[in-house]
Every structure is written in structure tokens, then in C-alpha cells.
Amino acid sequence: MIDIRFEHIFPHHLGGFGLRISLHSAQRRLAFFGASGSGKTLTLQAVAGLFMPENGFIRIGDRVLYDSSRRLCLPARERNLGYLFQNYAIFPHLTVRQNIEFSLKTRRHARRGIKAGERADELLHSFELAGLADNYPDRISGGQKQRVALARALAGEPELLLLDEPFSALDPQLRGRVRTQCAQLLSRFAIPSIIITHDPEDVSDFADAVIFYENGRNSPCYALDELKRNAAADDPHEFMRPPAPFG
After folding, report:
1. What is the pTM of this model?
2. What are the residues whose beta carbons fall under 8 Å from the beta carbon of 140, sequence distance 6 or more?
3. Residue 239 pLDDT > 80, yes or no?
4. Which residues contact 62 (CB under 8 A, 6 or more apart)?
5. Which of 188, 187, 234 is nearest to 208 (CA)?
6. Which tens digits make up the pLDDT trace of 176-200?
7. Closest by Cα among 48, 67, 53, 65 to 17
8. CA 116 → CA 41, 107, 120, 148, 162, distances in Å?
């Protein structure tokens, strides 16, 4: 379960953009859908601990990650969340194996008894990367980089996986195939996830429910099955329109 309510107004010299987010969902696979600049990534960064709002709270399950009234803000490294960045953020000076192992080199993982080498071997096999383990990022394809980044995000067995437009960096011909591979892998690991996107195909493949974004505001959470049942049969993307105005 995710429960978020916060506000943040940026200074005028930074555009004066206002973010007022209020959402609650018990769905395991959630999509934030909307145009670029609508506040999706800022919300994801707030959940991850990469951005601290002015006031409000963020709760995941029974854990409080941020609460301004209590002056509580857990550091990103203590939130036990996986984050797949839009450009993957793979370290160019590390091999595929070293990139995966990097996310396990923390005191939290040491306390949990996770052995970096064994966990890396497991993920290299699961993601069909074993033959590339000693390669550097400049020697692998875009789809392979995406799998490395996803394996690294899952290495520490996170409580929640955050995906920031994970296929936008891929060319259109590759995007569909990589999307299918990624969906299969996430289904196998069964980790709750939030994906942000402006592509209806991402929502169809990855989400059980969707929250629409517009101008720093969000809609209620809508179950995807219900939206599809109510959509016009002659428009495959009709379901990706919010049922009621918001904002």
C-alpha cells in the first residue's frame, strides 16, 4: 500500500511550478501517466528520497519514509527501494557484474547477510547476462544495458521498484521487445512497482491501476480493468483518458 500527500512550490526563478499530490493505492503495480513536466518524476523522486517536498508525508506499507510534521525524512539508502532511471545510470567504468554488485555494498545488505557475489550470479543467470558479466557498458546493446540496470535495481530485494520511463531511451523497433522481456522478468520476481510513463503500451503491460497527472496534480487511482471495460471498442487507447476532470 502507498499513501502520499505532499505539496511543494518551486521559486519563481525556477518556474514557480506547484506540486500538490494526494494519492492512495493498495495495487501492487501502479502507473503514473501524463505528459512530460506534469509532476510524475518529482513524485517518484520524492518516494525514492531524491527530492524532499516542503510539507506532507510518504508512507509505503507500514513504513513512514517522510513526514514533515515529525521532521522525518529517511535517506534514500535506507528506504529499501529499487530505482530504474530513464537513462539507466550504469557506471561506465564498471563491468556488468560490478554494476550489479555495486548496489549490494551497503551496511544494510551486509546486516541482512546478502553475499554480493552469489546474488550477482543469480541475477546474471536470471537476466541472461552471464555471458556479458565481464563486459563494460560500451560493449553491450541498449536492451542489455536496460537489463543490467533492472538487475541492479532488484539486487537488494527492494520493497518497491520505481521505474522512470524505462523504455524512452530505446529506439522504437527495440522498445516493444525489451518491454516484453522486462514485463516477464518483473512478473517472475513479483515485486510491487510504480512505473511513470506517457506511453499507453507501458501502462497495459505493467500496471494494474493508473493515476493520471496534469500540471502538478493527480487524479484518483483507477483500476485498469475497469477503465478498459468502459472504453470505446473502436479506440484501443480510449481507456487512457481520465473518467472525470481533475487538477
Report:
1. 0.88
2. 96, 132, 148
3. no
4. none
5. 187
6. 877 887 888 788 888 899 999 988 8
7. 53
8. 30, 12, 6, 15, 22
